[in-house]
Amino acid sequence: MRHELWGLEIHNHRTSDQAAPLVSLYSNMILLFGMTKIQSQHSKRSEASDDQDVILITETWLCVDIDSLELFDDRYLVFRRDRGSSSDSCRRGGGVLIAVKKCFNPCILDLPGSDLEAVCHISVWHSDKPLVPEDKHHPALSISICFVADHPNRKNVNISRYDFRRADLLAMWCFFREIDWSFLLNFNDIDKAVFSFYNCLNDVFIRTAPLRQTVTKRFPFWYTIETRRLLKRKARVRRLALKCVNPDSVDEFRALRSAVKYSIQKDYNTYLRLTEKNLISNPKKFWSYFNNTKHNSPNSLYYNNVCYENDGDIANAFADYFKSVFKPSTNYAIKNEFKSNCVGDLVKIDSVTYDDVVLAISELKSSLTVGVDNIPSFIIKGCAEFFIYPLLILFNLSLRSNEFPYVWKQTRIIPVFKKGDAQDCKNYRPIAILSPMSKIFNSIIHKRLFHQVKNLISPSQHGFIPKRSTATNLFCLTNKIISSFQIGSQLDVIYTDFSKAFDSIDFGILLNKLNGLGFHVNLTDWLHSYLCNRSLYVYFNNAVSREFSGTSSVPQGSNLAPLLFILFINDLTSVFKYSLCLLFADDLNLLSSMNSNLDAVLLQSDLDCLFKWCTVNKLHLNIEKCSILSYTRKPQPLNHVYKINDLVLSRSDSVTDLVNLIFPNTLIPWSLRHIVDLEFLNAKLRNFREKLS
């Protein structure tokens, strides 16, 4: 949980935003704080109220039988909260009162969460700098109030990070060389060991990398320094022209405005030429430009019919939406049938080797982008010889203790627009950013696991498997279609659509399936720790959302997650008795030859088995998006009505399968897809000199 201190500095009636704890000054000039019972103040009430705009009193000892007009004249509006319900109530004491002059138009604001308690620390001491002469009965006090907030509530959060672009890399390399990591061997708690590991890294970074503030950029990154200077100068001259300070300011402003337009266009053309020139050598820069042409970050966002305009509120709205996708998982317990069916512990990982860590670091992509721990991957790759040994110790300690470090469970979520209305929260998908250390560990576990389970994976699965892809999946489908055409038969294909399948994986069901596949109990315990209690937050325009937990789903951002998913869905292929199935991750197609009505009935039986499997495994089918295509050249094809959960599947003349457009009565027109994509790209890249072909 991230905690931050938020507050306001209060002197008299004025407030000003501060990033420090709340500090207020208690005085008896403008605000009168009565610290004694109101009954003893009746004689002083008129004298006090003549000079006071606001009167605050505690320990009023009032009840509903005493009217506020008995205490103050009609110049005041009185707000009370009494403890006693009547004068004869046994509950005496307590009560607060605020009397405000009506000329200020006071009113009660219905604030959300106003009845909730807040955790805070209050310090009170005598003020040595009173604003007014002190009353001996009411000395000036300084009050410091520190609030603990579980989420930021400002529009932009300026986050201090190390500027590794300006770091002294040679000095950093020397400091890492001097660290003796053997002290990590003394730890039995993985979280404490990882904490000490990061402390050592931060000690080095403090000495070798300057800090920088992450703030919202005022100008596009491709603006040159000269263009930015012209913009600032134009703004100054515009202010002078509006004040009519100098008659020549208007002409100067117009000249600067033309110069700024010319300079911006010149910078943009230079940026386009460089992007086009480096299309082959730096494709990442090209796709960054391409994505920027599609849309910008929304200034407002709608979620649950509520409009959010503040960046912090938008980030929290994204967090609420992404959290709503998750489902509660069942408790993990090894089922008896898995215990009895398991011949032996076939799949286990006792330890990680030195070579495993070396290979994983070498395969890590070098980047300046920082992970959740604010460490870029290029630092790890550049100083790999000094990271291998400590990471080896930490990884093996994690496996021995069956615990995945909590720090490496933290995930930063970046909302990425898909299609549709850019102001609709539901049209965004989450992109997960993990720690580089977590990626290295995930990569090692993935390789070790896949080597042991690759023979258990169904041959119908083409997703996330080496030497299999969308091409092999479509080849199998095309081959069946051609064979059906050659014999003059009809091939019915059911195209299914799972709703957020990766985010709906139940932890308990997954772990029990892994036990059934022969996973060692220590490995499933480690995976249980890896999956559960993950902390996520949304990062949007330098604003950070409140944290939330992923109660289901395989964690995004690593190659271990897809492997766990295909193991979860692996037994689906065994429920189909009469049809052939093709899988690419969660994209499922059912194929069956139609020679009579009986074949259609048998295919319907497999659809019933599919729905039953989804119910048991807590996956949801988008039945409205499921469809049926009949591939045949018969003049009168068999058009059977197929249903899932008593809902009729729609028939289509074409379908998009794995980003390829398919027509039922012809072969797959690969060229059409390429033509459409190229025309779309050329439309987006119309400012480039050369057209794509």
Number of helices: 18
* Cα-based radius of gyration, to the nearest Å: 34 Å
Main pleated-sheet profile: 5 strands, mixed
In what order do the strands lie side by side in the largest sheet? 2-1-3-9-8
Structural class: alpha+beta
Poorly predicted runs:
1-49, 113-117, 151-157, 336-343, 667-676
What proportion of the residues form beta strands (DSSP E)?
A: 15-25%
Global morphology: globular
Q: How would you classify the quaternary structure?
A: single chain
How far the N terminus sits from the C terminus, by CA atoms, comes to 51 Å
Total number of strands? 27
Estimate nothing, just give the exact number of structural domains.
Answer: 4
Helix content estimate: 25-40%
Calculate the mean pLDDT score and round it.
80
Please provide a written account of the structure.
The protein is α+β, with helices and mostly antiparallel strands and 693 residues long. Helices cover 36% and strands 18% of the residues. The protein has a five-stranded mixed β-sheet with strand order 2-1-3-9-8, with no helix packed on it. Strands 14, 15, 17, 18 and 19 form a five-stranded mixed β-sheet that branches. Strands 20-21-16-22-25 form a five-stranded mixed β-sheet, sandwiched between helices. A hairpin with a 2-residue loop joins strand 20 (580-584) and strand 21 (587-594). Helix 14 (507-516) packs across helix 16. It starts with 6 loop residues before the first strand and ends in a 9-residue tail after the last helix. The model is unreliable at 1-49, 113-117, 151-157, 336-343 and 667-676 (pLDDT under 50).
